[in-house]
Amino acid sequence: xxxxxxxxxxxxxxxxxxxxxxxxxxxxxxxxxxxxxxxxxxxxxxxxxxxxxxxxxxxxxxxxxxxxxxxxxxxxxxxxxxxxxxxxxxxxxxxxxxxxxxxxxxxxxxxxxxxxxxxxxxxxxxxxxxxxxxxxxxxxxxxxxxxxxxxxxxxxxxxxxxxxxxxxxxxxxxxxxxxxxxxxxxxxxxxxxxxxxxxxxxxxxxxxxxxxxxxxxxxxxxxxxxxxxxxxxxxxxxxxxxxxxxxxxxxxxxxxxxxxxxxxxxxxxxxxxx
Length: 274
Prior knowledge:
Layout: H1 3-15, E1 35-36, H2 48-56, E2 64-72, E3 75-86, E4 92-100, H3 103-107, E5 111-121, E6 124-136, E7 139-148, E8 153-158, E9 168-169, H4 177-187, E10 193-200, E11 203-211, E12 216-220, E13 223-232, E14 238-245, E15 253-258, E16 261-273
Parallel strand pairs: 1-16
Antiparallel strand pairs: 2-3, 2-16, 3-4, 4-5, 5-6, 6-7, 7-8, 8-9, 10-11, 11-13, 12-13, 13-14, 14-15, 15-16
């Protein structure tokens, strides 16, 4: 996979709150298995009607740690982790780490890390700061973003195009890319239409999603879940689909399709409370 493709994978990971793929022709790896940690109540398969009610229940932020396996065009490509931490000052921090382990991504030791510090205000997840690092043998990019809600503007410095370093006006409800995943988990209700304004890396973009009316059965390793399908609707020809399950703090799967074919597929392998 070339550098341009790697960067596209990074962007998808962060705009969905998770990770992205790395290799082009990657050797097959063992199947991912969802592990049931003692401190986590992993929900068993439930009747669809009961699960729909559970999914519709209000979601409360709780610290967690989750791991994903990334696939590119059907083949394992890398692994990633995501964690949500609650600080003593009442603020939250979301961390994403992606490591390329096979193919070109592994050979170049690709590593992507992003953190967003945020709080909750007026029912919104409000980003306060963001730091992103992308490293490989021929790549070392670092960028920092600050969301100043007193001035209602955000600004980025570091490895970012000059035109995107200018102050960007904020609107109530704006969020960073890494927080989009949390917002979808919070807002996904059967049949709902979701709209978000993403302010990240010096740009503002609108995102729209449609939530399915009924859950469908999804397998994660040896476990099965009734999950709601959440599909992005405002980007024709480029599908992004998430599956949200009751009791799981992060999507159990995120799939990007291009021209009708699976492109990037992120599959939950394990999660636990922290």
